[in-house]
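Hi R.,

Here are the chain sequences for the assembly we discussed:
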Amino acid sequence: QVQLVESGGGVVQPGRSLRLSCAVSGFIFSSYGMHWVRQAPGKGLEWVAVISYDGSNKYYVDSVKGRFTISRDNSKNTLSLQMNSLRAEDTALYYCAKANSSTQRGYFDYWGQGTLVTVSS
Amino acid sequence: EIVLTQSPGTLSLSPGERATLSCRASQSVTSNYLAWYHQKPGQAPRLLIYGASSRATGIPDRFSGSGSGTDFTLTISRLEPEDFAVYYCQQYSSSPNTFGQGTKLEIK
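And here is the predicted structure of the full complex:
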């Protein structure tokens, strides 16, 4: 069955960096776009970033452009999110989500359980 | 970006009743690229509907989606206890992907 398992969350000071990972199994990872979606405590869902099936196209929400970098390793079935210059407003549960298509468009048909990032001094 | 507004914010109903949730877009959602998810406390969101009206795998037929353009509806025909959750709509017709703010469906 499809599984997505995030890791790498934690407590970090403002301005510091953190790298999230998502290990996937149960589907052909190299055929699908992958997304990061976050949810601040008690709030709704916010899309963060997407990467196409082959890594050639990447898009970000405006609030993280220039600070976050999405990447993937199709040989290891792993999705990553490098987060630099973290801010308090980046505090959230970060989900990786599988897209239904190979490109940056699409809905999210499978989700991980999330990894919590807390930015605090 | 397309802004999605969901209504009502909270819906209080009893098991067995019919629920109607609305999602209105600030501009047309082309190709009906609109999805619905629900999220139970402590869990990840789960896909219910895609393409405005297609049920995802394993979703019971009491869930149905309708609408086009800027107005979309999720209907749950007869509420079961496990349906009480927060519901989100999402558009994927234009970048960036955006979600509505959510409708909380609570037990009356």
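The CA atoms of residues 39 and 45 of chain A lie 5 Å apart. Chain A touches chain B through 22 residues (CB under 8 Å).

Let me know if anything looks off.

Best,
T.
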